[in-house]
């Protein structure tokens, strides 16, 4: 095969430049194709078949001609090895190859945008407000990770290595508690599943491998003596209603969200007494709770007129929890409680006075544990508290040491005395509406 570059002076353009053609001779055949290069006759050396030094960028232009000749030679050798005949189309493809495809632009999926879409989808499906707020908090933590570590998060690239870095940020930088991190992981898995199943995004991580263990810590509850101390405490006027709401929850087992939403329509007559029938805010399940004399007295105390939209004067949860610490101090709930926490991977134990741990949810723990201590069947307690799974209710039985000790003493020593001996307090806490047949 022989290659030759020639200047076609017969095809001069208006500027006086002529095209450079490549002529290829092989096996008695000839192919001719334009190279795309042009120059004036004075800038072309016909003997050496290249541009003269007078041609602008002559060195680069001559290198291009050498590259073309080399490509044609390689193309011809490939055809000869395959036993194929060269064609003009093939020669043109060698001299002017198709342009390389533009690099594909990888679209990054905006985390805040996706989370807002996720929240709106949950909202449209009727999810509760606390779930929507939890998703918003989850998004803020992930954005905090991006800002702190300089790493952009995208569901389509989220893998186990990324997940470990996120958990490290939450545990060591933000110092979140283990159960808070476990809640984060549950919410993240729901979000990633939504991205995969509903948006069709290729989420690479296996959701079952995103794990974070939930720790069942000891739930603080109040004894009958503590309840008596709260009832008899002399309080400033602004703390009285806070104490009353706490005691009402201790007598009924209602969550803060449910007692906050109590209205006159939730009160019903039953066999000469009163019961509360409501749909729980958190679980959307119905519960029916018998109002004991003590619980009914608290409601009557605030029923000053028939136009109240709420049965009790419940403050905002954060305000109430802050005031409850002061209520506990006035009631002398100063006994030490050992608190064990896992902070940044380290087990930390410290003693704090009981009043520092007093919150609105302590009342629900108190109702459950005191009811079990007084002999309420777990199945009945499950109905009163609105637990969908009895295993949730059994968690309280596991932490009530007095219940365990009394059971062992009754079985082994024949002694069935109940440690909490205040009969009046028993009736206030344990009475529940019998289940309908």
Automatic annotation (TrEMBL):
The keyword DNA-binding does not apply. The keyword Glycosyltransferase does not apply. Residues 217-409 form the Tyr recombinase domain. Keywords: DNA recombination. SUPFAM superfamilies: DNA breaking-rejoining enzymes (SSF56349). GO terms for molecular function: DNA binding. It holds the Pfam family Arm-DNA-bind_5. GO terms for biological process: DNA integration; DNA recombination. This is Tyr recombinase domain-containing protein. It comes from Hymenobacter sedentarius.
